[in-house]
Amino acid sequence: MKATALACGLALSIVLQPLPAAAGTPVATGTGGAVATISAQASQSALAILDQGGNAIDAAVAAAATLGVTDPFSCGIGGGGFMVIYLARDKRVITIDHRETAPASFTPHAFLENGKPLDFDTAVASGAAVGVPGTVRGWHEALQRYGTMDFKQVLAPAIEVANKGYPVTEIFSHLTAENERKFQLYAPTSALYLRSGKAVQPGAVIRNPGMARAYAEIAQGGVKAFYEGPIARAIVAAVNTPPLNPGKTARAGRMTMADLANYEARIRQPLRSTYRGYEIYGMPLPSSGGATVAEALNILEGYDLKAMPRAEAEHLYLEASRLAFADRNAYLADPEYLDAPVAGIVSKAYAAERRKLIKRQAARSAHAGDPYSYQDDQSVPLRPQSKGLQLENAHTTHLTVSDKDGNVVAYTFTIESWGGSGIVVPGYGFLLNNEMTDFDFSGPHPNVPEAGKRPRSSMAPTIALKDGKPAFTIGSPGGATIITTVLQTIFNYIDLGMPMDQALNAPRLSERNGDATSIEPGFPGSAQARALQGFGQRWEAAPEEIGAANALVFNPDGTVTAVSEGKRHGVGTALVQRRGH
Ligand code: GLU
């Protein structure tokens, strides 16, 4: 593959006088609109749009666009996502699926070489991993159908941040360092995020005029500017001839202008389930998030958790998650390519069957059940077999916004791994996703790659209603741990009775039917850990921070509390339009 020269004029410039970083405020209560994101600038963008009279949908897009600038390794216009929206006037919940699709050139052999699955990291850092980005189409649908503003208005705050610059945090620098090898492959990426081949240091200020230009072209030309214009041509060129540094190699993809022009977002009905008097609205397939959370909650609903010691309740949470993941791993994939037994998986009767498998001692591993007998139509002949957990990377971002009229957004979007494929689109400053590695590399499996298909996701933006009104929202990044973070936060909040900030800050335990439960640093050896070990629970050897959640709580007195992380991923920023009552 030929090395491509640096697009120097548009390379990100790193200036050495730091801008003051806005202090994180992880909890805020008040009236009017509210927002919680992991980035101070993104939360401020949402608030600015709300203050200008925009609604929650407008503000969510503004925050997302800003996150694309300040958190470019976890999200952006080079990726895709899932938005769940509560429309106050209609009293209904809708979702916008703007997951990336496989280019038309894809086949089930896309990630096989000589019949064997490709090395995962090699597959990630390549043009072949890039799916057709869905984010801009998703934002377009959100604004056109449910917003009040246009791209020009909602992208303005992000353009300002991209032009003015933002300070590099410890985490940003650390993530860059972790991805140095991937970023060293590509010329525009090294120009943006590396200095002499090494990660940009904390305190530097990053400006990204290329991304400002991409946003300005979208503001000017609308959705077509991205899918049919010069940006589309630049994406196709970057995928098919990755802009490598001299001496580096990476696999090319095969994407066409038609793949981009044909990309469609899907308006989908939310996946609705109930839990102890709450209506839980989550994301349907191709995200496994909603169904897996619903199955686990349905299993847990059969226990009087409040009456139990905490360790016993948490043991049940882990076992319910294990069972739900066994089904997720076996059955769930893009519903346009497969008749997945979702109705069975989320039925209360099926949960009652699954519950019988839970013992006082932790299971080693769970098998998928037979949800087909709980479907309305039981004639489906195919019974996919359970499969181990596919290797997945994590990261992504989640944000949540409400407005004074009662509209609510829970939005998770991603470029898949930290830094996605590692390919920055020359001249446009945004990273392309590696979402295609969310497919199972080898079959038979419902989630094998196919032309036009959307890889199974774990993203789980969730809006809960009580008595017909929004009660809370929750969502998180973290690959498959997204599901357990959302599930555990709901369990902490509803069953353990924690206020939402405590529910978020509690140590996260993620059981995904693997060999052992994922845990966070500081957890092993704690009293909580020892009590759970009494139930036979086992921990992964290498603790790691899990997720970066954001939530809203609609209080009985009419106020809203926005909640972000108090410790993880730095400190998040929760803001309300008017503080206090
Ligand atoms: N690609 C992941 C998914 O769709 C999300 C990215 C992440 O957080 O790992 O489930």
Automatic annotation (TrEMBL):
The keyword Nucleus does not apply. Cleaved by autocatalysis into a large and a small subunit. It holds the Pfam family G_glu_transpept. GO terms for molecular function: glutathione hydrolase activity; leukotriene C4 gamma-glutamyl transferase activity. Transmembrane segments: none annotated. It comes from the Bacteria. Pathway: Sulfur metabolism; glutathione metabolism. The active site is at 396 (nucleophile). GO terms for biological process: glutathione biosynthetic process; glutathione catabolic process. Residues 1-23 form the signal peptide. It catalyses: glutathione + H2O = L-cysteinylglycine + L-glutamate; an N-terminal (5-L-glutamyl)-[peptide] + an alpha-amino acid = 5-L-glutamyl amino acid + an N-terminal L-alpha-aminoacyl-[peptide]; an S-substituted glutathione + H2O = an S-substituted L-cysteinylglycine + L-glutamate. Its EC number is 2.3.2.2, 3.4.19.13. Keywords: Acyltransferase, Glutathione biosynthesis, Hydrolase, Signal, Transferase, Zymogen. InterPro entries: GGT_bact (IPR051792), GGT_lsub (IPR043138), GGT_peptidase (IPR000101), GGT_ssub_C (IPR043137), Ntn_hydrolases_N (IPR029055). L-glutamate binds at residues 99, 438, 457-458, 479. NCBIfam families: g_glut_trans. Belongs to the gamma-glutamyltransferase family. This enzyme consists of two polypeptide chains, which are synthesized in precursor form from a single polypeptide. This is Glutathione hydrolase proenzyme. It comes from Massilia yuzhufengensis.
